[in-house]
Amino acid sequence: MGKTLYEKLWDSHVVRELPDGTCLVYIDRQLVHEVTSPQAFAGVRARKRGLWRPDANLAVADHNVPTKDRALGISDPTSRVQIETLGSNCRDFGVSLFSMDDVRQGIVHVVGPEQGATLPGMTIVCGDSHTSTHGAFGALAYGIGTSEVEQVMATQCLLQKRSRTMRIRLEGTMPAGVEAKDMALAVIGKIGTAGGTGYAIEFAGNAVRALSMEGRMTLCNMAIEGGARAGLVGVDETTISYLAGRPFAPSGALWEQAVQAWRGCVTDPDAMFDREWVIDVSTLAPQVTFGTSPEMVVPIDGCVPDPTRESDPARREALTAALTYMDLRPGIAMVDVPIDVVFIGSCTNARIEDLRAAAGVIAGRKIAPGVRRALVVPGSGLVKRAAESEGLDRLFKEAGFEWRDPGCSMCLAMNADRLEAGERCASTSNRNFEGRQGAGGRTHLVSPQMAAAAAIAGHFVDIRRPY
Amino acid sequence: MQRFEKETGLVLPLDRLNVDTDAIIPKQFLKAVGRTGFGANLFDNWRYLDRGEPGQETTRTPNPDFVLNKPRYKGASILLARANFGCGSSREHAPWALIEYGIRAIVAPSFADIFYQNSLKNGLLPVVLPEDTVDRLFQAVEAEVGYALTIDLRTGQVLAHDQEIGTFSIDPFRQECLLNGLDDIGWTLRHEAEIRAYEARRRREAPWLFGPEGSRV
Ligand code: SF4
After folding, report:
1. Confidence check on the interface: ipTM exceeds 0.90, yes or no
2. Which residues in chain B have their CB less than 8 angstroms from residue A413's CB?
3. Least packed by Cβ within 10 Å: which of A67, A147, B58, B90?
4. Nearest alpha-carbon partner for A90 in A26, A41, A145
């Protein structure tokens, strides 16, 4: 019987297997950022052994960095210490770092693929749950905790157990106005935030094949919101042409050799999955979350659900609590929900294609008077530069958006970009948890087009119709 | 890592589905560069009525309605939780905060993967029990002030009033590590030669992953 892509990736990285199935797994690449690495570097330092393979690590500061007035430095002293600590650790241990003034700096999950540091067939880890993003390249990529970051630094390996395999086939042609983000939200709405727990999810089907690498990254990025540590898409021509010429990708004869190997990074036709889903996307509507968990999602033409209709008591209670926090009454149409803030950014949706999609719906219009802030935060300095060369920054600025420097920004609000209590935000990020974008802030997850349209209208709109 | 063998302790019930790591330890406390100092900010947004900032000196106003602040649960070492506990961000600060607060084991119907692993690596025991058993436990805790559980890692038993109320399993390797307080790095470094051999083979098969000897990335 054939193997799934996950099984191929796993089997080719097992250094040793223990009787209970726990495996010592080799890690090809570790991406490092300032928040989850200081304690790991400190641990390595205490062991007095150095890094096993400094060249396998690539570091960038993203979570805490300011997104404006960078020349003034970092005003928050604790953030500054953390970013400086990353700098000194990278210097001490010989790890490549893109510092804040480097045009290559950006969100770690945007930077890795952009640089070609994310390659098919690799095992890739990072102390960040959205490492699942890199699975879009046919790599086994997942988030780890700080103890594991330290272990990879010290041993280039992790002790883990094999995941179960799930395939989600997305079939059909996506309607206009519907994006990879909507696919991701619809999948989570269907399987639930714990639906993928214990699984590695492979996304397949003709709708996935039709996606660009950017779209596939959006989809895999959100695999973790469905409970799966890893998302995967098999390698095809789209993958290979994206990688050609990237700074860290191989070139010349090595490129030819690599491409040949990468073509094998697909699931065999006769392979079996532990679980399969098929979702028809040909009638998919743009999605919007209404609650405090990504699974609390409805189509844009839907309404806020009524908790009294929920039969399971724990779920009913969770729903009631979510609606209280979100200050939404059951039965309200999503298109009638007004918004205060718009955030276009994050490792889910801050790549060039996302910015183009968002800019495309603005069409010379201005943000609604009721919208207090609208931020566009490119995923990296290179995305920012590309967008500027296409004139997208002008489109955004003329409409009333702020055009910022790259970083995680209001996705998690560790820097100065955050919601005030009670503010309601249309956000292209990935988590709508309580307080995620600022204490008391209310997050609705949407696609870049939906976020931009909401900024123009001042409330959510069905972008499939004129508004 | 702290060893875990058997724990008897007061049970703290947290009756919420999908408790995420942002809720366990909010992001403003992740700016620290050390592993300690997180306990006071465990569940910060729910626990206090005022907003907390790192390094805050002023006294906070506890939220009297939040279960952690109820006197009857003071000193609890076992957290009783609902499904998908620990979902969201990979921050290991979540188990660090729980441990520092005094939690040694968490009983829930299911855990998010990364949180589960992070807990094991810090000597915090995640115990998976069936949903209906967890339901009954929530009722029992509510009904009896001072309700305590005993969790025995060696036998995989959960006991209340000396009666077994459920059993759980855990990977034998992880059980060994917990019982002996062994960490993964120490274990892995005993297999250094095997890792080198794997690496040499991989360098031949997929040389583009390594770049020229000694080069950066
Ligand atoms: S953009 Fe958001 S989700 Fe992505 S790495 Fe940064 S904080 Fe995490």
Report:
1. yes
2. 27
3. B58
4. A41
